[in-house]
Design brief:
alpha/beta; Rossmann fold; seven-stranded mixed sheet; 7 strands
């Protein structure tokens, strides 16, 4: 399977619109503006397959990308997006609907901004994924924006801030490509299981 051959498959705005889970899936989750679309584009070696915006909350649907026998799912961001309460509620129902369906979910890629301690929403999502026993990797985005001493301090702080021990916590930069190959390898390995 070649990740570069991904094509946009569809966008689902409600649980009823979600595609049938007929192939392995990797899902990307994280707060608004954490860099999900930039990560997906870098991962797939594409410039603009996933739409990138400087305004939080632009991804309002679950966007699916077909990888010829596997699927990537990009969830709407949670957290501080300036959208109405009813729109946030719709997103929550959509995300809950996705995770509550019988899906061939191989990996959840939880993105956290490396520059900041995890937010309350990040910790809520993390606990949801742990309690649901979903296979997961934590990707620390925007690592290139930290100076070396800041980077060292943030990477040392994350395990205590998350209060969990993870086998996979991966620094990532959509700008420099740091972490891209390791994440590709993880995704390809879990898709072939």
């Amino acid at each position: 399977m070649k990740l570069e051959n991904a094509i946009f498959e569809m966008a689902a705005g409600t649980s009823a619109q979600l595609p049938v889970s007929d192939m392995p899936e990797v899902v990307f989750a994280g707060r608004s503006n954490v860099g999900k679309s930039s990560l997906i584009n870098k991962l797939l070696n594409r410039k603009s397959l996933a739409r990138v915006s400087s305004k939080p909350g632009k991804t309002a649907t679950i966007n699916f990308y077909n990888l010829d026998g596997a699927r990537l799912a990009d969830l709407p961001g949670y957290g501080f997006a300036k959208v109405s309460a009813s729109e946030k509620q719709r997103w929550a129902k959509l995300i809950d609907g996705y995770f509550s369906q019988e899906r061939d979910l191989r990996l959840v890629v939880l993105l956290l901004d490396s520059r900041h301690a995890p937010s309350k929403d990040d910790l809520t999502m993390l606990n949801f994924l742990i309690e649901g026993e979903f296979p997961m990797v934590i990707v620390l985005t925007k690592i290139d924006k930290l100076k070396p001493t800041e980077r060292k301090a943030r990477l040392a702080a994350f395990p205590d801030e998350l209060d969990v021990d993870f086998e996979h916590m991966l620094p990532f930069s959509a700008e420099t490509g740091e972490g891209v190959e390791q994440l590709r390898d993880l995704i390809l390995a879990c898709m072939s299981e």
